[in-house]
Predict the 3D structure of the following.
Amino acid sequence: MKKHPSLLVALLACVIALSAGCASTPEHVPQKETARADIEKITKVDIFYHPAEYSVVDAGGSSLSGLASFLGPIGTLAGAALDAGSKLTVAERATARSKEFTALIEDAGTPEITLMQAERLAERIRESGREVRLISVKRPLGKMSAMDASDPEAATADYMPDRARLVLRVTPGYRAESAMSSFQSVMTTAFVLRDAEGKHLVSYSLRKQDNGETYMAYEGLKEAAATAAASLLKDALAQADDVFVMTFDLAPVAH
């Protein structure tokens, strides 16, 4: 699979984001209710998904890791990115392992996690009485709320002007917080729902960490690549259900 040239930078950003954690405020609730009238008008939806790229991040091993107690994990990783002597050790290792792990899963013939997730989401939306198409595109980049299938970095297919757009950006993978930590699962799904004119309706990022599938070392993770991918698929399908709830699952208005 052809990788985007900015994968190294993206993976470093992923390391920092994972270390920082994520907000717990359910922003999708007011978004969905605010956009209720627009969502209710939608009868046709295009789901834009991208080929899977797995992320394997080991935050340990940086030449600056000894400063973690002083700088904190975010400061340490940011420092590693800026320190010429570190040569982006964390990000380079993450890039190499991510490519290798993705290739192992592809070679094993494992079902593509992003396609399976998109199909699950399409099934749920069809149950609401809407027409749905699936379109494979390049992985969308940039700020989550700005993602759109019309982005020249993402779009490879023409979409029809009378159809709403649900754009997905999925990051499945495993991470170890330090050289002494086990690799734990991390499944992230970011999405944006837009109407046929491109108006932003709902955007959110779902993240589940540590579903119980852990590996003491990277070699063990590689040997169990198919099993590790199957475990992430369960989380991806659950997040597909969550995306539906956050968008098209509209409760009746109380009178």
